[in-house]
Amino acid sequence: MKEMLLIELLTEELPPKSLAKLGLAFREQVQKSLAEAGFIAADNTGQWFATPRRLALQFADCLETQPDRVIEKKGPAVTSGIAADGTPTKALEGFMRSSGVEFGQLEKLQDGKAEYFVARIKKSGERIDQHLAGFVEAALKKLPVAKIMRWGAGEAQFVRPVHGLILLHGARIVPGAVLGLQSRNITRGHRFLSVGVIEIPHARDYAKVLAERGKVIACYASRRDMIREQLNKTASVVPGRQWLPDEALVDEVTALVEFPAVYEAGFEEEFLAVPQECLILTMKANQKYFPLLKDEGGKLRLTNRFLVVSNMRVTDPQHIIGGNERVVRPRLADARFFFNQDRKTPLAARIDKLSSIVFHNKLGSVGERVRRLAKLAGAIARQLHADGAQAERAALLAKADLVTDMVGEFPELQGIMGRYYAHHDQEPAAVADAIEGHYHPRFNGDTLPAGNIACAVALADKLDALVGFFGIGQLPTGDKDPFGLRRAALGVLRILMETPLPLDLTDLIDAAAAGFAPGLLGGEFRLQLRDFMFERLRGQLRDSGHEQKLVDAVLALNPTRIDKVPAKLAAVKAFAAMPEAAALAAANKRIVNILKKTDAADRANLADVDTALLQEPAEKALFERVTAIQPSIRSFVANEDYADALKALAGLRGEVDAFFDGVMVMAEEPLTRANRLALLRQLAGLMNQVADISRL
User: Fold this and answer.
1) Predicted TM-score of the model (pTM)
2) Is the pLDDT of residue 603 over 70?
3) Residue 495 scores a pLDDT above 90
4) Which pairs with CB-CB distance under 8 Å and at least 24 residues apart come from 658-665?
5) Looking at the domain assignment, is residue 550 inside a domain?
6) In terms of DSSP bridges, do strands 364-365 and 358-360 run parallel, antiparallel, or are they unpaired?
7) Co-location of 506 and 645 in the same domain
8) In a designed cystine with 378, which of 101, 274, 388, 431 is the match (CB 3.0 to 4.6 A)?
């Protein structure tokens, strides 16, 4: 008989930031067990529920008794199962006893090179009562829980104490125990709004009964949609106003409430004199509030109003609103105090304090680091024809806000507060903007630093970290990247490529390395760092939608001018679509393979082509054609007209095809062979100036 299956664990408050992950993982593990045992179809994904005080699952069309099955049990190898006299060995006899079969019932199975005995055992279907509690218990042990706890006098362990268990198949309670709790059909609703103990009469009624009698919206996704809808509705009461989007915060408050209600509250306008980033972070991080912004002349400005997502839906919410306003006021007062105190000491006066902060025990203090950054940023800025002195000043001040009270309280504001304080200190606008901009891009998709001075400081900051940590052997491993080097590498690449900036990556790495003490950095780090950077670039280009083979073709030449990569990709894409591309790519691959296989004598003889040694009409025609188009292709590449350079290559197809059809490259006569290899080397150099087209 098929019925709806319901599983619920009633708990104490679960960790909000991992609630959705717990719900999804719980569903995945139980679904897998039920499907493998045949109680549900493999594509029956069910529905998961998660609130601060419960994890629950529903599976429609769940069988009460699983189908009869044939279990295939693998035994010993045939060679070790049969004795020399043809009788079963002790190993095979033990296997037959444990499987409940006779020798004549065994089958043989070829598995690779060996042949094994197999017992096929017919097993009658069992009731779900015999398995469900075990499935749930096993699933709980596999959930992504960092720390578990024990409660009461028992041995049960979970991320939070569990106080109730429901196992329902239709209207029938499935007997079983999980974490020491016997299954029932009762649960509890909202801590304050519920009618008390709630009976679930049928598994299909779970969400409806909880909502009506328990004042609990059990479905995480439905609760999240309700919160977003109420945030939009409440914010739009005033035209031109909106709440500050923050999907992570929406997820968190969804995991904090069971019966959401959104209310509007406010604070005194005088607090708006504090930078809005401080106020926003205070409201979001400490109180889980949603700041309200208003459009003023095309710019969104913070207002003195905010939205509260409450777990109480009441007729008169004034006590809830007033309570939240009282709670946020001291937080805002602290932010104002930090801001006013910090401005009493100029950023420049804080630089010396950075010497007391260790950046890394092998790479020195933050004070030493900013001096390296200043030198490197100034050099980069001058390459970009920007003000080197301003870049040096910005780099010196870039980390000074780390020793301010505001950043000490809210580390997320580093750089942002530095810009505010630099403006207050009457530093040049470009210097102030670079202090904040040098942290960009902070994450995938973030904005890039604006202006050459900010770019110079940002590149210096990221390159110093990359070179320093690679130089002392602190490379990222697996999913561990404690120093954020993957993010730093992507930042460098994006700044160079998307700004774009005419800087050579190898030169930048060398310039950064020059800032460290002689002998500190290992000798092999440059090659490791280059490979690391190109692997990041390869992934970034793939994620941007570029075809894998095109990316491989361009990056095979290890281009160090990253700003030219997009144009090369576009050119190679256009070339790959031409009818001549496939034949030339194949020919180029053949040329590369031939040149790889040349012996030492042939490599020693590889020189410029000697026209007197050209014998066959096809090799003469190819040489003449290569010689004719070589100047134009070099000119195209020099002028970054990569598409025209590759288009000119397409004109070689006829001569290349004729050469390989009619000329024996590896001739017996050494000089003839060396001359033809020299021609191929010249051709390969011409064909691979933009990309390695053999990769196409």
Assistant:
1) 0.80
2) no
3) yes
4) 658/618, 658/621, 658/622, 659/618, 659/619, 659/621, 659/622, 660/587, 660/590, 661/618, 662/616, 662/617, 662/618, 663/616, 663/618, 663/619, 665/594
5) no
6) antiparallel
7) no
8) 388
